[in-house]
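Job type: complex structure
Entries:
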Amino acid sequence: MTTCDTEGSGEDRLIAAYFAPLATHPGALGLADDVAVLTPPAGCDLVLETDAIVAGMHFFADDPPETVARKALRINLSDLAAKGARPLGFLLSLALPRGRGEAAVGDRWLAPFARALGEDAAAYGCPLLGGDTVASPGPVMISVTMLGAVPSGTLVRRAGARPGDRVVVSGSIGDAALGLLMRGERVAAGDFGLDAAARDHLVGRYLVPQPRTALAEAVRTHASAAMDVSDGLAGDLAKLCAASGASAVIETARLPLSAPARRVLAAAPELLATVLSGGDDYEIVAAVAPDRLASFAAAAAAAGVPVTEIGEILEGRGPPRVLGPDGSALALDRASFSHF
Amino acid sequence: MTTCDTEGSGEDRLIAAYFAPLATHPGALGLADDVAVLTPPAGCDLVLETDAIVAGMHFFADDPPETVARKALRINLSDLAAKGARPLGFLLSLALPRGRGEAAVGDRWLAPFARALGEDAAAYGCPLLGGDTVASPGPVMISVTMLGAVPSGTLVRRAGARPGDRVVVSGSIGDAALGLLMRGERVAAGDFGLDAAARDHLVGRYLVPQPRTALAEAVRTHASAAMDVSDGLAGDLAKLCAASGASAVIETARLPLSAPARRVLAAAPELLATVLSGGDDYEIVAAVAPDRLASFAAAAAAAGVPVTEIGEILEGRGPPRVLGPDGSALALDRASFSHF
């Protein structure tokens, strides 16, 4: 970028320097053509998904470029995993602030961004297939379009939960939402008696999601319905229920919580609402028929992903009932996080 | 958007109101799931492409939302056509300014934007498959990821031009670059003796590209190499040559020019450089072997797309020589348009 911190100019230079090395898939054509070409795997349906993040909205402008790159890719990987799909590759659309102002990004930002993106792409078997890099008068925006595959007809949808199915979540819930509070310095970790490691755990869960790619096959094989938890467990489960024409009940006493989250809630029980509706978990919530639960749990264990039963799909319509620690129903101000 | 000009809130409302009606493909799942699912057409390769546009960079913030929508889709359709591919569908990633400021967009902008997008999607047989809508502290950004298909192994690449191939372009060159000058009011149409209709033609070519979708099959069947002309003919041909390990010569006397462009150049011959390198043409430049030229021309005529031979692929390396009106080589300051 002529206007940034190095010599040389143009989108072509940025692509050659930073992104072409990531385009290891032959169909990417070395990012030296206008398109990518992909022979679809036989007997599969394609699974398509796009998610964007914007500086100042979905990440802090001063977050490390490495964590921004990983987040951009992983939130899309999380969606694929929740649908039972395996990744094939991705396209990257990148808007970069121009000029010499504080917000402008140049090689000092792009080099670690691309390096981390490449590391994640390799780790998740999800090569860069193509992209577009544009200058923008606004903040950094990163839009990833992910392609995945499932054996034909086996996509796990939101619509598919049946009354009696168990509600299961992976990993732990609420870490990222609590981490965001601390990252944004709206609360201090010390207020909850957290040490630096505990704070770092929570903030780290906000900065760098851990998509449950390893759980995709278990979800695909055993779940009636599933989605990833990105906008808050309560709201996302409500969406799954709405799509399935059902309701649900979950018990907060059964929520899988990390040790730091448990400590925060002990000190500030009112943050339970944040845990339930804060978002950025990038875990999977699934409905699993009772007679599939043991097989699902075994497959999850074999994949190394903890899963926890937290409730049940019910007849009827309407948002899930959330039972508080004492067993009475909670009233949540908002079930889901939204920037709008 | 709670912060904009209507009641109701959230991405879900925007999607239900404006984008779900466009998701006519069954694989879009009504935009009510996390992903789209697509059974790839048998015997085909997938062709993937993403292009983004940003307000203040690629379009004017006060351009009509209808033209912005059409441009966002059509610049991607243009790429597909130049590769000989037919469209299958697209994903849309949309960043919208929030707040109540002048830049904020709400329903008054989104309604005509989505309507025009839907009209184009229907006209080009390219349904909306999925997307993401995010709030942004910056300008409107629209990133489209397009999926297309070609019969396996028949993608037309940049690399493939051979010495002796003829250089052919579709439509007319330079209109959009001249239209941009007038749209931006850097020059007045009256300076060139243009009437309102002539000015509107040029500005219209800038605002709303006409992708050469109808030419895709002729390109696929007959061209050795091709790409769309988006960053200026001289620079894009240079890229095609570089990818092919060849050079080229083109004659400006043979350039297909619209009547308004011809009038502008008569009044201001120095704008020839703008015509050659200004960009936004969204025409196709192709290399066609001499023994395929007649068939290509016939197929183009049958498709209703004018094509013009403007030069030849040459042995050697380096940017194409551009012969001016008097037959001598032109020196272009910059061959290609770049925002960086």
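Summary: Chain B touches chain A through 69 residues (CB under 8 Å). The two ends of chain B are 32 Å apart (CA to CA).
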